[in-house]
Amino acid sequence: MKNSIYAFLTLTILISSCKSNETERPHASLETPIAKKIPKELTVHDDTRTDNYFWMRLSDEQKNAETPDAQTQDVLDYLNAENEYLGKAMAHTQGLQDKLYNEIVGRIKKDDQSVPVKDNGYTYYTRFEEGGDYALYCRKKLEEGAKEEIMLNGPELAMGYAYYGFGGRSVSPDNKMLAFGIDTISRRQYTIYFKNLETGELLKDKLSNTGGSAVWANDGKTVFYTTKDPQTLRQNKIVKHVIGTNQSDDVVVYEEKDDTFRCWVSKTKSDAYLLIGSFQTLSTEYRVLDANTPNGEWKVIQPREKNLEYTIDHFEDHFYIRTNKDAKNFKLVKTPVNKTEKEHWVDVIPHRDNVYFQGMDLFKNYLVAEERKDGLRTIRVIKWDGTDDHYIQFNDPAYFAATTSNLDFDTDVLRYRYSSLTTPNSTFEYNMTDKSQVLLKQDEVIDSSFSVDNYTSERLFATAADGTKIPVSIIYKKGVEKNGKNPLLLYAYGSYGNSMEPTFSSTRLSLLDRGFVYAIAHIRGGQEMGRDWYENGKLLKKKNTFTDFIDVGKFLIDEKFTTSNHLYAYGGSAGGLLMGAILNMEPDMWNGVIAAVPFVDVVSTMLDETIPLTTFEFDEWGNPKNKEYYNYMKSYSPYDNVEAKDYPSILITTGYWDSQVQYWEPAKWIAKLRELKTDDNLLIMDCNMETGHGGASGRFERYKTLALTYAFMLDLEGVTE
């Protein structure tokens, strides 16, 4: 549920007259799709809502049936009609879309390769061959002259599939077997396969309806994996499988019966323990098992409690635990492996009111802490013997930094990733002893005119209506004047405590080089400024997310970056809810809005516990079976608050197989907008009939939707090339 997008222009003045002249709008003469209305009354708490488009909801059985029934055919007809209208309304931009697409993919290195990662006698990496849409997953032995082994050939495996998504990949401790997950529907229901890496043989073992990854016990023949409830797609069982047996013989070792929790299985960095984690928004619980005894008994670390969250890792004779116990911004504690309950927890990094503790990486001689202060991520290096405690220094005004792929305990070298709005994604190795570092790789931008010196980034603070200071990360091409005439794309997410990082995007250059300003609003509901930032943007404070975004938009106008005639907004998934809310609250403030896979039918979705994600998100949105939450949710739910008034131009994207936000939410929303809106502005929806929440699976195909998105905005600005 997250994403980002961008912004431009040089020729701006001609546009207002173009916008006001309806005869020049290519879509004005087109007949818009009209969805049939079948009123359905939905009554809760003595309040009745009438949903004219409830009929658009199909079950998985209906979608998967070989022959569509009448209702399914009606839905397909409507979605296809919207796609046909989209094609006609945007036909005049096809040349621009093609140019944008070619620009975007042209900047991507076609034969790229990841930085190799060492593990258990091998280096592992992925690489792309020229023209390949899918990666090759490879390894080499750690010896001079070792030959490459292609474990999985993505282009060959994906051949003939409209969608081919890879899940997790894990190699057995003896390096002989590979477990990997595949999803060919885009529903995030993976089948796990096993490959003998010595012979290349695909084993008969096949595990269906899984979360996508398998975790090996140390015996090299036993794996643990998650299965999903076939209707809600909740990961609710942990299952044990022995290589060479049928899935029907597998043993359920844990079932999560509380439908507000999900579960997963993993392994500690030390490879000493297997972990089962159960979690909901505000509570977690872990079980551990000695990885050498896969048939043993699992032990609970600390029984679940409301509002108690923790994650664990292992080092020597202690578990190290990140927790919010008596620590709103989280802290690090440790506990002996044989005394794991919370009364035995001892602080390692105490709680601080002004620092949010994000996580840790454990080494033989060092503890590495990932922290966030003043909204920016930091990497802190602490020597276990107490002789050193320092932060790695970064210079950009806004940036992203995080540790990555540190699988070896016995090393003084830390690997981390770094990016900023002007700096492409970079991988460094940092010597924690002498503080020297080496750049291993920086993503190449295949464009002779590109230079980081061509762009300026800023980090500003907007003031919300209640006085709260909202961080804003901004990038634009040098030479752009703050004269109020620039088109600007404002992006945000603002849910689940997910922080939106100010990272580089080569795709964004297509907007920046045409004069757009791009800004990220780090609004409440994320966790950029600590735990309170999240707490004040959820449940009965959710509207802060929406008003923060609006206030940032007003701030950018006041600062002369843009005006309402050139201001665009973008958000996806829960950020699509944000788009729907700000469209209802301040429709005149935006020239165009892009809502990607938008969560817009909040009340009906949260009332239906058969829909994926509903039950374990009550702590995020509230449970509308409670009248207080119902009334509050209804007051901002985008679908429930569409009115007969003018709206700006809107582009909606969705996927027919989306398991996170079902396709019928955006479909119903656009139908209701068409029914009630009083303007002639462009309203279009792109429904990909072959994909789900994340879009196309190939590395290039997905950029066709992005090219459409850019063309949508540029066309509104009068830019044709």
Main attributes?
14 helices; 7-stranded antiparallel sheet; single chain; disordered N terminus; 8-stranded mixed sheet; 37 strands; globular; alpha+beta; 721 residues
Question: How would you describe the overall organization of this protein?
Answer:
The chain is 18% helix and 33% strand. It has 721 residues and is an alpha+beta fold. The strands form eight sheets. Strands 30-31-33-32-34-35-36-37 form an eight-stranded mixed sheet, sandwiched between helices. The chain has a seven-stranded antiparallel sheet with strand order 7-8-9-10-11-12-13, with no helix packed on it. A hairpin with a 6-residue loop joins strand 8 and strand 9. The radius of gyration is 26 Å and the shape is globular. The protein starts with 14 loop residues before the first helix and ends in a 5-residue tail after the last helix. Residues 1-23 have low confidence and may be disordered. Keywords: Hydrolase, Protease, Serine protease. Residues 36-442 form the Peptidase S9A N-terminal domain. It comes from Hwangdonia seohaensis. This is S9 family peptidase. Belongs to the peptidase S9A family.
Please compute the radius of gyration using only Cα atoms: 26 Å
Sheet having the most strands = 8 strands, mixed
Percent helix among the residues?
10-25%
Tell me, rounded to a whole number, the average pLDDT: 92
Taken as a percent bin, the fraction of beta residues is 25-35%
Compute the separation of the termini in Å: 31 Å
